[in-house]
Predict the structure.
Amino acid sequence: MKNYLSFTILSLTFLFLQSCSSDDSSSELKDDRELRVEFVNLNDSLEQFDFFSVAIAFVTENESDEVNMTPSNYDSFVNEGTLRSYGYSYDTLQPTYEFNTNQKVKNASLSVGVTRGLNSLTKETIYGINVYADDDLEYSFILEIEEGEEIVQKNYNIDY
């Protein structure tokens, strides 16, 4: 599963770099704001899920910015110029998670992956995902896994 997380973080970093280097004016860097991502349980039987991974990528103001990301127990980290990417993985799912940059950053991307055992392959709603810029709710997403799927991976661009 650690390989899955490494692949997820590399993919997210690549996609994020592509979006930042695009000539499209909609992908220009926005104002700096503190990023907080909250996962809220929407499922009564989280024990059916085997693995949960989260990768968060964002841009800092300059190359020397140190980010005090919480939680601090990340599994992998990318530090390329002003780009930062943090990856987290968990063997069991908890009712809530919260990830915070604890400082102002620019555009961000979020990648989420969940796997489950073969014994339950119905469509399931797993988490509500709330994305805050400073303390303002900017985005809300619902993470679902479709019928017959063992793995769900979703990528979200966070443009605030």
